[in-house]
């Protein structure tokens, strides 16, 4: 069994609020492109943050649309499913 088989499966679903995007004049494609950039930045932050750093939750990451920053939780519904307890146990084991 490989190391990746030992990591619990977690699924994150991000469903944009079409009404909010329409109010902002943002297309689904533009939102998706900007969301990908924001998530890449978030991954980089997670990879470089120390335990003492205050890392925002996924709903609090910022997505830039038309030159303005918006909180992801205000733009989309976020659902995380899977074995979250096992994931927490897995990350605890990685800490020195």
What does this structure look like?
The chain is α+β, with helices and mostly antiparallel strands. 49% of the residues lie in helices and 23% in strands. The protein is built from 5 helices and 4 strands. It has a two-stranded antiparallel sheet with strand order 1-4. Strand 2 and strand 3 form a beta hairpin. The model is unreliable at 90-96 (pLDDT under 50).
- Proportion of strand residues: 15-25%
Order of helices and strands: HEHHEEHEH
Summarize model confidence as the mean pLDDT.
Answer: 83
- Tally of extended strands? 4
Q: What percent of residues adopt helix (DSSP H or I)?
A: 40-55%
| Anisotropy-based shape | globular
- Main sheet, how many strands, which sense, barrel? 2 strands, antiparallel
Structural class: alpha+beta
**Poorly predicted runs:** 90-96
Largest beta sheet: what is the strand line-up?
1-4
Q: Which structural traits does this protein have?
A:
globular; alpha+beta; 49% helix
Structure in a nutshell:
The protein is α+β, with helices and mostly antiparallel strands and 96 residues long. It contains 5 helices and 4 strands; from the N terminus they run H-E-H-H-E-E-H-E-H.
